[in-house]
Design brief:
The chain is an alpha/beta fold and about 230 residues long. It has helices at about 10-20, 50-55, 60-75, 115-120, 125-135, 145-150, 155-160, 195-200, 205-225, and strands at about 1-5, 10, 25-30, 35, 40-45, 80-85, 90-95, 110, 140, 165, 170, 180-185, 190. It binds uracil.
């Protein structure tokens, strides 16, 4: 069976492989990336949340509204870019709701959480496959999870946001080996890290920094288009 990313077919086996690699982790659902193929620009987030799993589209929850604002400021639409994330299922955490009377089955509340490094590694084959398919020139990791998946964890988003990095990205060394580690590929990309759209929801003081970063990214994309 084949499924599609946008209009391009991707083997169902890659999805099955990721689901298999992630067995035993607290993850639910599975979401494909969305957008144009090929696309000059690819955005890489962290992982879908509850809303995205229900809607079946990336960035449709609260963070999605902020991403729409990013795109509007950049003069871009979802149709001309590609949006993906490091992890394609929703990482969740269950908690027993306090105050359940004795003798009653306790109520569980489920919340989103940050994916672990192992969860990102488990889903690495699908992001690798998408990057191959989308052939982006510019990759925009949003937040530390996407950034570390692409360039390693020696730097953080707070030191690299708003800057262009011309360099290679990480992919699985041997996609057929379940224990394969990451290695850098040969192709050079323009990598432009941004704060994750959810960051501004929790920290309004980031608004002006993000505004400046988006202006810098817009300027960079315009210059690249004209070169
Ligand atoms: N955050 C992400 O990184 N991806 C989504 O799809 C939603 C929120």
């Amino acid at each position: 069976m084949e499924v599609t990313f946008g209009s391009a077919p991707v083997a169902e086996t890659i999805i099955q492989e990721c689901l298999h690699r992630a067995e035993g982790y607290d993850l639910e659902g599975f979401l494909l990336g969305q957008g144009a193929i090929p696309a000059k620009i690819m955005f890489v987030g962290e992982a879908p949340g509850a809303t995205e799993i229900v809607e079946g589209r990336p960035f449709t929850g609260q963070a999605g509204k902020v991403l729409e604002e990013y795109l509007e400021k950049l003069g871009l639409t979802r149709q001309e870019i590609y949006i993906s994330s490091a992890v394609r299922s929703r990482p969740f955490k269950d908690k027993v709701v306090a105050g359940t009377p004795a003798g009653v089955v306790p109520r569980i509340s489920r919340s989103n959480r940050t994916p672990t490094k192992n969860e990102v590694l488990a889903h690495a084959p699908i992001l690798d496959a998408e990057i191959e398919l989308v052939q982006p020139q510019v990759i925009v990791p949003m937040g530390n999870i996407g950034l570390h998946r692409l360039i390693g964890s020696h730097e953080t988003i707070s030191s690299l946001h708003g800057k262009v990095i011309e360099g290679p990205i990480l992919h699985l060394e041997d996609p057929d080996d379940p224990r394969s580690a990451y290695t850098f590929g040969e192709r050079i990309y323009s990598i432009f890290p941004l704060y994750h759209p959810a960051a501004v929801i929790y920290n309004r003081s980031l608004e002006s920094v993000i505004e400046q970063d988006l202006a810098a990214l817009k300027h960079f994309l315009e210059a690249k288009n004209n070169s």
